[in-house]
Specification:
- The structure is a single chain.
- Helix content is about 45%, strand content about 15%.
- It is an alpha+beta fold.
- The chain has one domain.
- A hairpin with a 2-residue loop joins strand 1 and strand 2.
- Helix 4 packs antiparallel against helix 5.
- The radius of gyration is 16 Å and the shape is globular.
Length: about 120
Amino acid sequence: MGRITSYPYLNSLDFALCEFGYVSLRKQTFRNVTVPKGFIFDGVTVKAPFTMLFSQKNLRNGVRASCFHDFMCEHKNKFKRREATKVLCEIWQDDGLGKVKATLVFACVEFYQFLKGWR
C-alpha cells in the first residue's frame, strides 16, 4: 500500500516549524543545559526598533540560541537571568552572529528581562 522512504535531510535537522513556532527534533545540549526533544519555542523575537539591525540570515542563525534561551526562561527556578542571556549570545555567536551585534543583544535582552521582573 504505502512505501517507506528515508529522508536523510530531515533526519539531520535539529528544529522544524510547527503551529506555535519551532519544535526541537532532538535533544540539544550546551554546557549544563539540556533541551528535550519536542520542546516548542517561538524562535528569535527581536523587538522594534532593533529588528532593523539584524539581517534575515542573523535571525535564522539565532534559532538554536533562541531554543536554549527560551528553555532557560521557562525554567527560571534552575537558571539565573544572566546565565540565560550569556548562553543566548554565546550560541548565537557560534552560529554566525558578529561580536558587536552579540554585545548589543546581551545588553538589550538583559535590560528587557530585568524590566519583565526576572532578577
